Write the structure tokens for this entry.
Amino acid sequence: MKSNRNSNWSEIEADWRAGQISGREIAHNHGISETTLPRQAVARGWLRDLAGDVAAETKHLLMLDAAQSTHPAHHLHACDDSAEIIERAALKGADVVRSHRVDVKFAKDIVMDLFRELAAITANHAAMTADIMELTKNDTDGGKRRAELLKNIGLSVRAAGARDLAGALKHLTMLERQAWNLDAENEAVKPVVNFGVLTGLYLKPKEKTIN
């Protein structure tokens, strides 16, 4: 960990005032202790006073994205130091949201591919059943392999897969709307993707017995 003596307190102040990351993360990023940061903030009279301005500027940058504009932000009215903090934090926030939009689209495309696979199995179920019957006609295991193969394309397994896919699609659609700021004024400036959620999108069908 860095010595406090060597810490860049102007950068730490900027991160603190921007209000976009936690005190713990600020302390970790700058190599100071979590207890030192709030003490220094009080001693130096820092306020987390720019969070609203950063949020507004981040939204402005994302609106420029939507308009396919490359012009820099031009509507900041704060003093020079505050304006620099706001613009720097807003650029970081906008980059996070852009990344989330790409990630959500990627995950949603996977879910739609799985839906198409499920649709293809359903459309060709009769032919696949006939193929399984032909493939297993000489089996000597008492029909165990045939039963397992038929179960894997059976209605209960396909229905369970459809339910899982629908749930994943519903969640991703919510994240997508949030990433594109379609439901609330302030959602576009918040991190929206929880990768712990996305790791659950392998969508293993639940095992059920067929009556």
The mean pLDDT is 77.
